[in-house]
């Protein structure tokens, strides 16, 4: 029987895989600690380790670019132009300063849901799932979830309704904050809605733990698959 991973065990496993695969891992870790602090370095390495592991589950190789930068536009990102993942240390510092880890939705039963305050482990896992989903969107040309998608899975349907409310409110907030047109477009796109939904669905599944095959299925989830 395949091992079922909790959030903590999954992150620990991915980091051990990274240590085993990267020859200069300790030097990278020490540099990050010296430049940004131990907690910040730990989060950055955890996110990158999990991104690399999720990406390997889907694509079966280690050809994608990856880097950690001092400043950037987003907390983490996948860029199709250079085919690379980027982790932004300034946003990690801000996250730790505010300790505002946000919420995710858990569907308890039909029509009933509960917002759960995210732990730092939830942030790490959801960020990795979100960014790998973006690469899946670009590389595999999957059919993503939209605001008007309707499926035979009621958990997904309720999640779509919830994410639509959040997305609409976020767009109003971005416009009120006078964010740039480029920023608003990136944060309110169909691909972003789809990745946000998948990261939330991933966290719901992690409440009971997941094996490797289930993780792969969630990352690759499409509306058409829910009808088969």
Task: Give a description of the structure.
With 228 residues, the chain is mainly α. 59% of the residues lie in helices and 12% in strands. The protein contains nine helices and five strands; from the N terminus they run H-H-H-E-E-E-H-E-E-H-H-H-H-H. The model has no long low-confidence stretch (mean pLDDT 90).
Residue fraction in strands: 5-15%
- Any idea how many domains? 1
Spatial strand arrangement across the major sheet: 1-3-2
Give the N-terminus to C-terminus distance in angstroms.
25 Å
Mean pLDDT: 90
Helix % is 55-70%
Shape: globular
Quaternary organisation: single chain
* Discrete helix count: 9
Order of helices and strands: HHHEEEHEEHHHHH
Largest sheet: 3 strands, mixed
- Gyration radius from CA atoms, angstroms: 17 Å
State the secondary-structure class. Answer: mainly alpha
Low-confidence segments, ≥5 residues, pLDDT <50? none
Number of strands: 5
Descriptors:
59% helix, two-stranded antiparallel sheet, 3-stranded mixed β-sheet, globular, mainly alpha, 228 residues
């Amino acid at each position: 029987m395949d091992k079922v991973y909790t959030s903590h065990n999954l992150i620990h496993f991915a980091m051990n895989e990274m240590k085993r695969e990267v020859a200069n891992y300790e030097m990278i870790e020490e540099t990050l600690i010296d430049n940004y602090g131990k907690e910040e370095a730990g989060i950055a390495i955890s996110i990158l380790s999990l991104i690399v592991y999720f990406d390997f589950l889907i694509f079966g190789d280690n050809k994608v670019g990856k880097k950690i930068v001092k400043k950037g536009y987003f907390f983490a990102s996948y860029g199709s132009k250079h085919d690379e993942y980027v982790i932004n240390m300034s946003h990690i510092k801000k996250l730790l300063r505010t300790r505002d880890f946000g919420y995710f939705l858990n569907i308890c039963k039909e029509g009933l849901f509960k917002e759960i305050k995210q732990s730092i482990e939830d942030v790490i896992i959801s960020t990795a799932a979100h960014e790998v989903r973006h690469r899946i969107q670009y590389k595999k040309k999957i059919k993503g979830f939209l605001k008007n998608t309707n499926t035979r899975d009621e958990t997904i349907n309720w999640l779509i309704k919830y994410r639509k409310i959040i997305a609409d409110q976020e767009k109003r907030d971005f416009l009120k904050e006078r964010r740039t047109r480029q920023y608003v477009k990136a944060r309110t796109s169909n691909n972003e809605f789809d990745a946000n939904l998948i990261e939330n669905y991933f966290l719901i599944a992690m409440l009971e733990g997941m094996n490797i095959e289930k993780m792969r299925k969630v990352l690759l989830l499409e509306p058409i698959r829910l009808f088969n």
